[in-house]
Design a protein that fits this description.
about 140 residues, alpha+beta, Tetrahydropterin Synthase, Chain A, about 30% strand, binds nickel (II) ion
């Protein structure tokens, strides 16, 4: 039987969305508050969905302790209390937008979790604004 397990986690991080090829005015128009020159923080909340077959012997889908440790090592240790533009390599060539961060989290977790499971990530930048990756359509 297939099912999905969910684990919540969070990290605090700073970022700035800015395109050096654009004027300050265009950056401000496109990125709004997230273009603030001296960076700013968000409390990111994430939900990780792991889907697969329930083990008929243990009744488990995936070891929750292992999932917790993987999220800590790959995401929290990497991003928590960091400036995403400056402190991590991941956003050297892409904007640290919620969309791209969710994509990156999915990529980092997928590299650590057996491919017989499928991974889905929801990332909330604010209480009301979030992203889901992969897309459902
Ligand atoms: Ni922002």
């Amino acid at each position: 039987m297939r099912t999905t397990m969910i684990r919540k986690a969070h990290f605090n991080a700073a970022h700035r969305l800015h395109n050096t090829e654009w004027s300050d005015e265009k950056n401000k128009t496109v990125f709004g508050l997230c273009n603030s020159p001296n960076y700013h923080g968000h409390n990111y909340n994430m939900e990780v969905y792991v889907s697969g077959e329930i083990d008929p012997v243990t009744g488990y889908l995936f070891d929750l302790k292992l999932l917790k440790d993987i999220i800590k090592e790959e995401i929290e240790d990497r991003y928590d209390h960091k400036n995403l533009n400056v402190d991590v390599e991941d956003y050297k060539d892409i904007q640290p937008s919620t969309e791209n961060i969710a994509y990156m989290i999915h990529k980092l977790l997928s590299a650590r979790i057996d491919s017989k499971y499928s991974i889905r990530v929801k990332l909330w930048e604010t209480e009301r604004n979030g992203v889901e990756y992969p897309s459902r359509d």
